[in-house]
TrEMBL record:
UniProt-recorded name of the protein: Glutamate 5-kinase
UniProt binding sites for ATP: K18, S173, D174, T215, G216, G217, M218, K219, T220, K221
UniProt lineage: Bacteria, Pseudomonadati, Pseudomonadota, Gammaproteobacteria, Alteromonadales
Cellular component annotations (GO), alphabetically ordered: cytosol
CDD domains on file: AAK_G5K_ProB
Length: 370
């Protein structure tokens, strides 16, 4: 796909900024204002320029850790309790920076991957922005389970940016942006100022340790950038510890790494299915590729894996294991197993002929190879 080449914050009307735990509670002894004040001032100045802002804020676990004496970090219940305690501190810290109202939104991947709840989140965000209220979003760590988690707020910020129809995503990091090698271990590492295509070679540059306070690293930031740019959202990775980066952004400069957006972004429904919807099962076909105009019927399906209901999203792959597409299934796995097997005493061939397509061409998202 082609890319927009001339982009800056001056073109922005709606912006999502993601702030990590290391900026909020760097020593895990409660929220600190040292770095947050600069970020808050950036939000205030951006809003004064007519930019609508949404804040995705990590930090509840780090902010709540000091309330617990010698906590067992491997105990999931303890970490959830930390998140519950720290969320209050984090929200009150952010709120006192602003003379305009803010709102808390806690969500899980289960909320985002369910289409009805996803649309509900969209409407809530739009309503808050219409009233000039700052949405502050975090994963609901206190209640979520492993299979319902996004897992990191980098990817969550990209999902929120897509849901909110934002045009810019700013991800704060502890380095100046994406380097060609780890700048913490290589003195000759070079900052990459602009990325027009996130390739396997780009991902290969992200090897290195994850932050001791946060849950993500540069890889999750690249994943977020890939999600966002495919939705037409320009994405910056910047150094959130350097106050000059925020003034540079407001002046329309690029203080870190800019990932340019697709000039022909995915449609909303296609983007949601590709990057947000969960895969509840798999359909195996013989084809080497699938087009977005294709429909699948029973005879084309070689096997059915997993359990899913009608309307849930499934992965379509071929016999080589290649991921071809994600799609909404018109039928449940139970019914598909029944009609694709030679059941004694049942005319399954007649049943197959009477059924409509398993996958309709308006409910399919073709997966592009990286």
């Amino acid at each position: 796909m082609g890319k927009i080449k001339t982009v800056s914050l001056h073109n922005t009307k709606r912006l999502v900024i993601k702030v990590g735990s290391a900026l909020i509670a760097p020593r895990e002894d409660g929220c600190k204002t040292r770095y947050l004040l600069d970020i808050a001032q950036f939000i205030v100045h951006a809003r004064s320029q007519g930019i609508e802002v949404l804040l995705v804020s990590s930090g509840s676990v780090a902010a709540g850790a000091h309330h617990f004496k010698n906590p067992d970090r491997n105990n999931i219940a303890i970490k959830k309790a930390m998140a519950a305690a720290g969320q209050m501190d984090m929200m009150s810290t952010w709120d006192r920076f602003f003379d305009f109202p803010s709102a808390q939104l806690l969500m899980t991947h289960a909320d985002l991957r369910d289409k009805e709840r996803y649309n509900s989140i969209r409407l809530t965000l739009f309503s808050l922005l219409d009233e000039g209220i700052l949405p502050i979003i975090n994963e609901n760590d206190a209640v979520t389970t492993d299979d319902l988690r996004v897992g990191d707020n980098d990817n969550l910020s990209a999902m929120v940016a897509a849901a909110a129809d934002a045009d810019t995503l700013v991800i704060c990091s502890d380095v100046d942006g994406l380097f060609d090698k780890n700048p913490n271990t290589h003195n000759d590492a070079k900052l990459i100022k602009e990325v027009n295509s996130i390739t396997p070679e780009i991902y290969a540059m992200t090897s290195g340790p994850v932050s001791g306070v946060g849950t993500g690293g540069m890889k999750t930031k690249l994943e977020a950038a890939e999600k966002a740019t495919s939705h037409g959202i320009m994405t910056y990775i910047i150094n959130g510890f350097d106050e000059t980066t925020f003034s540079a952004l407001l002046q329309g400069d690029n203080p870190g790494t800019l990932f340019t957006p697709f000039d022909k972004p995915m449609e909303e429904s296609q983007h949601w299915m590709t990057h947000t919807a969960a895969e509840y099962g798999e359909l195996v076909v013989e084809s080497e590729r699938i087009d977005k105009t294709d429909e699948l019927n029973c005879k084309e399906i070689l096997s059915i894996e997993g359990e899913f209901s009608a309307g849930e999203t499934v992965l379509i792959k071929n016999t080589k294991g290649q991921r071809l597409a994600k799609a909404s299934s018109n039928y449940s796995s139970c019914l598909l197993h029944f009609v694709t097997q030679n059941t004694v005493g049942v005319n399954t061939s007649q049943m197959q002929r009477s059924m409509g397509p398993i996958i309709s061409n308006n409910d399919i998202a073709v997966l592009e190879k990286k």
